[in-house]
Design goal:
TIM Barrel; 10 helices; 8-stranded parallel beta sheet; two-stranded antiparallel ribbon
Length: about 300
């Protein structure tokens, strides 16, 4: 009986592995399903919930990027617009002024890991990619800017499509779901379809269920419990639980920087559910978590 369950589990992981294409970015290959990859967060903002103001100069951003890479980051995610609940929307000019010089500076320092640009604006995505970024991380799933998917298709860039309702200003008032995971799957299916029809190769699409975005504490946990239901989408899954408030709620810790090991537990659960990519602040710690969790859940030696 136990042997049969193990064999069934291995068949599921093999099916997931075969269903997802390998992504090649800037000389790096992402073999989805073989191991868990890490996206290191580089916020160049003054107001992000956890590390606002810490890396918004060129020198500090370069230093932090190098630390993330040494710690095991596979991708550096550069963001100039805070997306915490209630965050103020900045102008296009200000966002460009924050992220483009940082991307250029990273490339000038011979940093050759893939860089993603965390933006919902097509013009920012284009400018960042022209400056040296490789992929787009769009929290709106390509819904805020109607030109985003066309720009991504034109530039042949991979894109992460995240589920959200509303905007960071009002999203936490929009958490009434009939069936949370079913609605996330439906949203992602629709966005994948539209992206492909716009010219984005399916092999360049990653989805993110949007932990913390228009989700309550209980709903964030539900996503992690039911994450395997998203594998039906047959595209890589990104999960971003890093230091978020639902972890602080469980641990009774108001300081996000004191949520590292709570984040580690959430990441382990995400890997067990089929996550391929984790967006995190604390790269060295979560790198170790991934190695052990992959050995358990992916039978990876």
């Amino acid at each position: 009986m136990h042997r049969q369950l193990r064999e069934d589990k291995q068949k599921v992981f093999h099916k997931q592995l075969m269903a997802k294409s390998t992504l090649h970015v800037r000389g790096h290959s992402f073999f989805w399903g073989e191991r868990t990859y890490l996206m290191g967060i580089l916020n160049v903002t003054p107001d992000s919930f956890s590390d606002g103001g810490e890396h918004n100069t060129i020198d500090s951003a370069i230093s932090q990027a190098k630390k993330l890479i040494v710690g095991g980051a596979d991708i550096i995610d550069v963001g100039g617009q805070s997306t915490r609940p209630g965050a103020t929307q900045i102008s296009v000019e200000e966002e460009l002024g924050r992220v483009v010089p940082i991307v250029k500076a990273l490339r000038s320092q011979n940093i050759y890991v893939p860089i993603s640009i965390d933006t919902t604006r097509a013009c920012v995505a284009r400018a960042a990619i022209e400056a040296g970024a490789d992929l787009v991380n769009d929290i709106s799933g390509g819904t805020y800017d109607r030109d985003m998917l066309a720009v991504v298709a034109e530039l042949k860039a991979p894109i992460i499509l995240m589920h959200i309702r509303g905007t960071p200003q009002n999203m936490q008032t929009m958490t009434d779901y009939r069936d949370l995971v079913e609605e996330i799957v439906s949203f992602c299916l629709d966005r994948i379809k539209i992206a492909v029809e716009t010219g984005v190769a399916r092999s360049r699409i990653i989805i993110d269920p949007g932990i913390g975005f228009a989700k309550t504490y209980e709903q964030n946990l539900e996503i992690l419990r039911r994450l395997d239901e998203l594998t039906c989408l047959e595209v890589p899954i990104l999960i971003g639980p890093s230091r978020k408030s639902f972890i602080g709620h469980i641990l009774d810790r108001s300081d996000p920087k004191h949520r590292v090991w709570g984040t580690a537990a959430a990441c382990c659960g995400a890997i067990a559910g089929g996550a391929d990519l984790l967006r995190i602040h604390d790269v060295p710690e979560i790198y170790d978590v991934c190695r052990v969790a992959d050995a358990i859940w992916r039978n990876n030696n």
